[in-house]
Amino acid sequence: MINVLFADDHEMVRIGVSAYLSAQPDINVAAEAGDGGEAVRLSLELKPDIILMDLVMDEMDGIEATKRIIAEWPEAKIIVVTSFLDDEKVYPALEAGAVSYMLKTSKASEIAKAIRKTYEGESILEPEVTGKIMNRMREKPADHLHDHLTNREMEILLLVTQGKSNQEIANELYIALKTVKVHISNILGKLEVQDRTQAVIYAFKHNLV
Q1: How far is residue 115 from each of residues 24, 118, 152, 205, measured CA to CA in Å?
Q2: Would you say 99 and 195 are in contact if contact means Cβ atoms under 8 Å apart?
Q3: Across all residues in the chain, what is the average pLDDT?
Q4: Contact status, residue 28 vs residue 1, Cβ threshold 8 Å
Q5: 20 and 28 Cβ atoms separated by less than 8 Å
Q6: Facing residues of 101 across strands?
Q7: pLDDT digit string (tens) for 38-96?
Q8: Domain boundaries, the chain
């Protein structure tokens, strides 16, 4: 079972999404939080597998809550689920440590899919989010950590930026799934990033896409 904490200040949203998720055979909504402060407390207390985090909440917003959770528990896997695509929301949320970014317009089934993929170590970004990251990061100064990537690692990095899963990459390149995982681990190490989302940000920042 994938244990989930759902933080959102709209009770009806929590009720609707939680009901769907709890009906899944592999997902358990272990707790709900109505504000950022409660999300931080429950996350550190329960250590759920996945945290669904709204961004605009009373007491403490989702970005600050994400920062505090990651500061105390760097391994936390946080999926932003929000209505906002503003630049001042998207990038700070990912920079704070969120690994996936979903919109509330997404179907509950899509959120469930994002939970499973994020749990498996992948990252889910809405296409609009990817575009905003690209525009934002092109303004940043470049370093050249990617010069240390092999041709195969660069090839896999570019497939990651397209939202390909590990299995899809393995199928496309005709290599074993285990080999893909080793390559991605090497890529993250060489780029000095912690997860696939940060690797995607790096790729856009350095105009590799």
Answers
A1: 11, 5, 28, 26
A2: yes
A3: 89
A4: yes
A5: no
A6: 80, 125
A7: 999 999 999 999 999 999 998 899 999 999 999 999 899 999 999 888 767 888 888 88
A8: 2-134, 141-205
d(CA 47, CA 41): 10
Per-residue model confidence (pLDDT) at position 205:
81
The strand pair at 27-33 and 50-53 is best described as: unpaired
How many C-beta atoms surround the C-beta of residue 72 within 10 A?
A: 11
CB 20 within 8 A of CB 46: no
Q: Which fold has domain 2-134?
A: Rossmann fold (3.40.50)
Two tokens at 89? 């929301």
**Rounded Cα–Cα distance for residues 33 and 38 (Å):** 6
What pLDDT was estimated at residue 133? Answer: 64
User: Counting beta carbons within 10 angstroms of the beta carbon of residue 141, is it exposed (0 to 12), middle (13 to 18) or buried (19 or more)?
Assistant: exposed
Question: Which CATH class, in words, describes the domain spanning 141-205?
Answer: mainly alpha
Tokens of 180: 């893909």
